[in-house]
């Protein structure tokens, strides 16, 4: 199919011309081009009026992820599950159910690492191993990525660019992981509801490489109970739900270091 390829050389030519017009030196041009390709974390889903996105992190959990999936199925809602690679390896059936029921999978590193503490090579390893763990279950590789703690180190954004991953943050954080009470979680989500909102929830737990039972520690029953409470309230209010990968990039929210030249 030669026709779709023909615009590419022209864009390249224009980029080179613009660089020349701006008077950038030959050494600066490749660095500027690289910086432009690095994506910024998206804090909103770009899907139109009254459309939101629900996200669930740190799983899959053999106990709580199926409960979350049951609630979502009862309301015909699709969500995004940002999984950790070590949990994926332990609970591949849960990963397959997530995908089979039409939800999106996101990469949440291998062991829930603080990426700023790692070398660029270790960041890449955390992300690539998780991609590989997901595809090993027979599910297609994630196209979304969320850094643990929202710690999008420059290295992770560079790997996102290389692997074709879109970095996704959030706009509503009910801090469900701290178990503040079902009603509190639900009310915080309802209060934060808005067009484009991305809600951060946790269906799993992740203790890192030293965790003797990754994905099965911690109590996420408040998260499940809150979902049962707030989801019908939001639906009654007119909201619908989607996953970020189905839409063009939304407004960026966790701002990394500004790319060169901007
Ligand atoms: Zn997390």
Structural features:
seven-stranded parallel sheet; 262 residues; 7 strands; disordered C terminus; 42% helix; binds zinc ion; single chain; globular
Question: Could you explain the architecture of this structure?
Answer:
The chain contains 10 helices and 7 strands. By secondary structure, the protein is α/β, with parallel strands linked by helices. It folds into 2 domains: 8-37; 51-246, Glycoside hydrolase/deacetylase (TIM Barrel, Alpha-Beta Barrel), CATH 3.20.20. Strands 1, 2, 3, 4, 5, 6 and 7 form a 7-stranded parallel beta sheet that branches. The chain starts with a helix and ends in a 21-residue tail after the last strand. The model is unreliable at 1-29 and 255-262 (pLDDT under 50). Bound molecules: zinc ion.
Each distinct ligand: zinc ion
Q: Could you give the order of the helices and strands?
A: HHHEHEHHEHEHEHEHE
How can the largest sheet be summarized?
7 strands, parallel
| Percentage of residues in helical conformation | 40-55%
The oligomeric state is: single chain
Structural class of the helices, strands and pairings? Answer: alpha/beta
Principal-axes geometry comes out as globular
- CATH hierarchy: architecture of the largest domain: Alpha-Beta Barrel
CATH topology of the largest domain, which one? TIM Barrel
CATH hierarchy class name of the largest domain: Alpha Beta
Number of strands: 7
Rg over CA atoms? 20 Å
Quick check: average pLDDT? Answer: 84
Q: What's the number of structural domains?
A: 2
Cα end-to-end separation: 36 Å
**What's the name of the CATH homologous superfamily of the largest domain?**
Glycoside hydrolase/deacetylase
* Strand fraction: 5-15%
């Amino acid at each position: 199919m030669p026709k779709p390829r023909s615009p590419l050389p022209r864009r390249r030519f224009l980029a080179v011309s613009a660089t020349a017009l701006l008077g950038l030196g030959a050494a600066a041009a490749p660095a500027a081009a690289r910086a432009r390709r690095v994506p910024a974390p998206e804090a909103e889903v770009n899907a139109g009026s009254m459309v939101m996105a629900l996200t669930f992190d740190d799983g899959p959990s053999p106990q709580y992820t199926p409960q979350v999936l049951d609630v979502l199925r009862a309301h015909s809602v699709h969500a995004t599950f940002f999984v950790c690679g070590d949990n994926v390896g332990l609970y591949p059936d849960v990963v397959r159910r997530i995908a089979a029921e039409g939800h999106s999978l996101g990469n949440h590193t291998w062991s829930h690492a603080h990426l700023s503490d790692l070398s660029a090579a270790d960041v890449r390893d955390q992300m690539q191993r998780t991609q590989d763990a997901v595809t090993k279950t027979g599910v297609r590789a994630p196209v979304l990525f969320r850094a643990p703690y929202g710690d999008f180190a420059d290295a992770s954004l560079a790997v996102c660019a290389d692997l074709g991953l879109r970095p996704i943050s959030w706009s509503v954080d009910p801090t469900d992981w701290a178990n503040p009470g079902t009603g509190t979680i639900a009310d915080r989500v309802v209060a934060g509801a808005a067009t484009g909102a991305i809600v951060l929830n946790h269906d799993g737990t992740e203790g890192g490489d030293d965790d003797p039972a990754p994905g099965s520690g911690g109590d996420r029953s408040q998260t499940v109970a809150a979902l049962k409470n707030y989801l019908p309230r939001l639906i009654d209010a007119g909201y619908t739900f989607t996953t970020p990968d189905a839409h063009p990039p939304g407004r960026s929210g966790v701002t990394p270091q500004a790319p060169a030249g901007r």
